[in-house]
Amino acid sequence: MTRERKKGQLKLEGANPMVLVESNDGPSEPWTPEQEAIVDAVSSAVKRYIKNTETLASGKYAHLREKIPEYMANPGNLFIAVCTDGVVIRYERKTLADRKFAITVVPHNIAEAAAMLSQNLVYIESPELPHPQNENFGVELKFSVHSPSKETSKDIVATRIWFQTKPLLPGQDELPGTKPYCLLSVRNQLDIEIHGELVSEAGAATSTQPFVARSTMRLMAGWDCIEVFPGFKREVWNADFAPLWAEHDVLGAALIAHTRDAHLSTLDPRASARRQYAVLLAAFKALLDTNPDREQALQTFLQDNPMLLCPTHVRAWPKLPLGSKVTDFVFRDATQDYLLVEIERSTLQLFRQDGHPTADLTHAQGQIIDWKRYLEDNLHTVQRELGLTGITPNPNGLLVIGRSQTLSANDRRKLQTMANESPKLRIMTYDDVYENAKAVFENLLGPMWDTGGDTQIYFPRVS
């Protein structure tokens, strides 16, 4: 097999992809025929293997994509070291740069090559050296507790971690067609679980809520997976069987991920629904923070997610005409009560500098009054022709306008006074809508803890 041969030094720094720094310092040492043969066999098998994992992840098992490791589903650079006593493979995540595939013969054993390619994160012990001799081997992992209210941070534990294995060999000969014996296959992904209890920050004597926080983290290394194959049996590196190895490994990885997720979901069956609504609330908050100039952006979002406005509704009518006026929403709940909703832009002010309502607020209130007048004059027509069965001439009204940060304490008191004077009309800011919906979701599903990143929170049921 003809291949491009380059001489140089492999550069591995932090979380960056590998870089081959080419060198022209003299001719390369030629490979022996035996080394050439094993290089051909290993490179052909691995290339076909990774091509099949990628194809399976995007095709036959696309429905399992999120549970398939990234180096299988979307492979990046790949480096193979043929050592004096086996093979070590370094898989990387895909980057914007072109994918590189490199294989070389090195005058090192698999223990030395694994340590080098893993950037001192994989250690294969020996009877003489059961532990790394380098005190800086591995990476320091530190956990801290941070108090946002007190603006303090305290380290609670710090340790050095690495992946370690014994040089075990298979107890029996490998069967034809099986994947070469893999001593170690380790991913650059740590699953961390923290068990604790939610307590009141004020220390009130209330019942506590147990929780399990699960998060994943990558170590500061550029690889996604390191695999070590001891021994030299060229016949086991048969590329014809690589598709079988690929399917076996893809399904195995997906099964492991599914089993882990199923265990945590059993602890907290509401976790999936809670994450779904947390994502919805985050999207709503992000939209509000863009300060949309057009009311239609808010109308569209709320039309797609009407439970934010009326969590108890059983039916919703967006943009329903009442005479010459058009409502933004009409909701009906399970008790046949109706709610007329008028939404205005989130960028509008509710009160002027002198404390009086703005023209925008007054106009919006007038809209709801006009709808109710139409209902009084045309109640039976509305019930019959618009399908609003059982609606009364004076249903509840909701006006959503502006943001909470524009309101002073006096403005809030004025809103309360207006609500007392017109108990069937409620005025809310978009932040009020957010907080109201969040409270409803939390009452049903448990606390929505915004941890950031990919951390997932589970609340086990208390017996």
In a nutshell, what does this entry contain?
This protein has 10 helices and 21 strands.
Helices and strands, with pairings:
Blueprint: E1 8-11, E2 19-22, H1 33-58, H2 70-73, E3 75-82, E4 86-93, E5 101-105, H3 110-117, E6 122-124, E7 139-147, E8 152-161, E9 163-165, E10 184-187, E11 190-198, E12 209-217, E13 223-230, H4 242-267, H5 271-289, H6 295-304, E14 313-318, E15 321-322, E16 325-326, E17 329-333, E18 338-343, H7 359-377, H8 379-385, E19 396-400, H9 409-421, E20 425-428, H10 430-445, E21 456-458
Parallel strand pairs: 3-5, 6-9, 18-19, 19-20
Antiparallel strand pairs: 1-2, 3-4, 4-13, 7-8, 10-13, 11-12, 12-21, 14-17, 15-16, 17-18
Helix pairs in contact: 1-4, 5-10
Descriptive notes:
The structure is a single chain. The chain has 463 residues and is of the alpha+beta class. The chain contains 10 helices and 21 strands. The chain has helices at residues 33-58, 70-73, 110-117, 242-267, 271-289, 295-304, 359-377, 379-385, 409-421, 430-445; strands at 8-11, 19-22, 75-82, 86-93, 101-105, 122-124, 139-147, 152-161, 163-165, 184-187, 190-198, 209-217, 223-230, 313-318, 321-322, 325-326, 329-333, 338-343, 396-400, 425-428, 456-458. Strands 5-3-4-13-10 form a 5-stranded mixed beta sheet, sandwiched between helices. Strands 14-17-18-19-20 form a 5-stranded mixed beta sheet. A 3-stranded antiparallel beta sheet has the order 11-12-21, with helices on one face. A hairpin with a 4-residue loop joins strand 7 and strand 8. Helix 1 (33-58) packs across helix 4 and helix 5 packs antiparallel against helix 10. The relative contact order is 0.10. The mean pLDDT is 91.
